[in-house]
């Protein structure tokens, strides 16, 4: 249904995310972000927009991304059909893929980055997305779009991809 990437650029402190899907409304459903907190992506056959906002609330209180994902997904009775990733402002990541997510559904992590997808044409797509981001040059937004293209070239969403969304923000620059 969807694949997405969340990143933190170590050099500039910029956080960003991008998502694409074979369905409608990727912009309104998947990505959530706050410049001083981090980002989240919630997707799947029964996505929870609540997860995205709640993850940001937890991270705003100092909870690392991986712990925020664990807390939210462990208590949700609909988690089997959902997928979530999170990135905190320190570059920490977390991910969850529910057992009933539509195959191929998986995630991949790299330092300061996480990618995930479901209803993918193959399980290599999330790593291809991360590799595409790592190979790209220029602004974070341009590298995120290159990551989505790399995912598509690796097989992407099994239905093809239509809508895309990219979100970037920077607070304080270099640290």
From TrEMBL:
Pfam families: DUF1028. Coiled coil: none annotated. It comes from the Bacteria. InterPro entries: DUF1028 (IPR010430), Ntn_hydrolases_N (IPR029055). Transmembrane segments: none annotated. This is DUF1028 domain-containing protein. It comes from Wenxinia marina DSM 24838.
């Amino acid at each position: 249904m969807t694949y997405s990437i969340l990143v933190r650029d170590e050099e500039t402190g910029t956080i960003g995310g991008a998502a694409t899907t074979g369905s409608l409304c990727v912009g309104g459903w998947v990505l959530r972000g706050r410049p001083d907190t981090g980002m989240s992506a919630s997707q799947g056959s029964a996505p929870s927009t609540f997860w995205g906002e709640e993850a940001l609330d937890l991270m705003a209180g100092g909870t690392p991304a991986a712990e925020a994902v664990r807390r939210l997904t462990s208590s949700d009775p609909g988690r089997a059909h959902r997928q979530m990733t999170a990135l905190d402002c320190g570059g920490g990541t977390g991910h969850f893929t529910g057992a009933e997510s539509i195959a191929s559904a998986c995630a991949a992590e790299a330092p300061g980055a996480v990618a995930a997808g479901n209803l993918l044409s193959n399980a290599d797509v999330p790593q291809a997305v991360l590799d595409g981001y790592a190979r790209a040059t220029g602004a974070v937004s341009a590298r995120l779009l290159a990551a989505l293209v790399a995912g598509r070239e690796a097989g992407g969403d099994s239905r093809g991809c239509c809508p895309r969304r990219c979100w970037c923000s920077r607070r304080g620059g270099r640290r």
